[in-house]
Fold this sequence. Notes:
By secondary structure, this protein is of the alpha/beta class. Helices cover 42% and strands 16% of the residues. The strands form 2 sheets. The chain has a 6-stranded parallel sheet with strand order 5-4-1-6-7-8, with helices on both faces. Strands 2-3 form a two-stranded antiparallel ribbon. Helix 9 (200-206) links the parallel strand 7 (189-193) and strand 8 (210-212). Helix 3 packs across helix 4 and helix 8 (177-185) packs parallel to helix 9 (200-206). The longest helix is centred in the middle third of the chain and has 18 residues, at 71-88.
Amino acid sequence: MTSINKKRIKCAIFDLDGTLVDTADDLGLATAYVLETYGIKPKWTKDDYRAFVGNGAKKLLDRAFEHKLSDDELNKALEIFKEKYNEISLDNAYIYDGIKEALDTLKEQGIKLAVVTNKPHQSAVKMVKTLFGKNYFDVIIGAEESVPKKPDPFTTNHALEKLSCSPQEAIFFGDSDIDIYTAKNAGVQAVGCSWGFRSMECLLSAKPSAIIDTARDIPNFFKVV
C-alpha cells in the first residue's frame, strides 16, 4: 500500500456501479430486454453482466451481443437500452452496506464528495439523488456522448476542477481496473473496492494504492478531525 498523506486529502471521488450501488440486476434486465428485442434469447448470468459493466452502456451491449452488431445497429440498441433502463434502474438497485455511514463520516469531516461514472449522466444523477438525497454529493458526473469516458481522465479532471481540488488532494474509490487506471491517468491515488463487480485479481493487476474489503474502511484514508 502506498503511503497516503491524510492531512492533504480534501476530496473523495467515487465510481457508482459496483462501488456505491449494486446495479447488476437492473443492468442485466435492461440488457436482456434489448437482446430479446433483437430476437436473441439471453444466455448471460448476473456475473457475466457484472463483467460487462465499466466502459459505458454501449460497450456493455457490445459485449452482450458478442461484438456482432455494426456501429449503427449498436447505437440503435443503445437507445432501446437507455429507454428501458431509465424505466427500471431503481427497481432493484441498492446502496452497499456501510457506504452511507462511511460517507456521512466524511461529510462530517468536511470532505467534498463526487461521483464520476461511465453510466449515462442523466441516469447517474437520477440514481444518486434518489438513493442518497438531492444535495448529498457535491458533484455528479456521468457519461456524455461528447466527452471521453473513463479510463480517460477527462471526467475526473472536470470533477476536480468543480471541487476546487488538486489531484494530490483527492482519492478515487472504485471497484474496477478501469477506475484505478482512471485515477492514475488523472494523477489521483486510487483505492480498489473488492465488494464490487470485478475480481481481486483484476484489481491487483491495476496496482491501486490500496484495496479495501468493506466500506467501513473508507474513512481510514482521511484525517480524523
